[in-house]
Design a protein that fits this description.
85 residues, mainly alpha, 5 helices, globular, DUF6455 domain-containing protein
């Protein structure tokens, strides 16, 4: 199990990725389009990524938004399902 610090770091990355892609996770959860468990699973999947630094850099470089996550994102399928448009 990841440490609390690791989990928090990756939760922030998942949240930033959602924001960058125009996905409001809170709103989608309230609508029943994604469950709290799915979001937790996404964070756990993210903790297994070997490139969190690269992800942070990618997010910094896409502060204006993006249509899709980087290819190495372990949650690309989830974000593809939730991305507007």
């Amino acid at each position: 199990m990841p440490s609390q610090t690791t989990f928090a770091r990756h939760a922030a990355l998942v949240d930033r990725m959602a924001d960058t892609l125009g996905v409001d996770l809170e709103e989608r959860t309230l609508r029943g389009e994604v469950s709290v468990d799915e979001i937790g699973d996404a964070v756990l999947a993210c903790t297994g990524c070997e490139s969190p630094g690269a992800c942070g850099g990618w997010l910094d470089g896409h502060a204006e938004g993006a249509e899709r996550p980087p290819r190495y994102c372990r949650n690309a399928d989830l974000f593809a399902r939730l991305t507007p448009g």
